[in-house]
Amino acid sequence: MPAFEALFQQFYDKVLADDLLEPVFKHMSAQHRLHVAHFVAEVLGGPKLYSESEGNHYQMIQKHLEKYLTEAHRKRWIQLLLETADEQLLPADPEFRSAFVAYLEWGTRIAVLNSQLNEIDMPADNPMPEWGWGVPGGPYPPAP
Ligand code: HEM
């Protein structure tokens, strides 16, 4: 969790310094970075910090309604996040990186789609997404 918190801390610094994304995020709450870190960590199998004390899937989806995000926003968001992951030396093993990117592709595309709507037909108790770790194994040498 500390690695995810540090990742999103630095990532949103980059977002606020980015001409395309700054207008989208300039009103984000002080807790935004932590909430997104906790959400992503939970989806990938980490502690249930987000769903037990900060929100739920339904509330997270609601946050994106009527934000009118574009494909350009989405691409820049992912690009900056992956850059930050490399700078922070997050594990580079194929399983982690492929699961991470696959979830981000899915989640950001959902965010763009939902951001065009002003309401969404979704049960308020909709469960958190849970991401798998893909096809495990090599061929490559295990990490030391
Ligand atoms: C996997 C992808 C994503 C996840 C997990 C995610 C998660 C979240 C969460 C948890 C919140 C609520 C934060 C809070 O409680 O303060 C939020 C809000 C928001 N997200 Fe996302 N998000 C994703 C993708 C995106 C993308 C691609 C964009 C735009 C480029 C975006 C724009 C926003 C905005 C504008 C808000 C509201 C900020 C505000 O309160 O002013 N999100 N997101």
TrEMBL record:
Family annotation (InterPro entries): Globin-like_sf (IPR009050), Globin/Proto (IPR012292), Hemoglobin_trunc (IPR001486)
Species of origin: Mucilaginibacter gynuensis
Pfam families: Bac_globin
Protein name in UniProt: Hemoglobin
Keywords (A to Z) from UniProt: Heme, Iron, Metal-binding, Transport
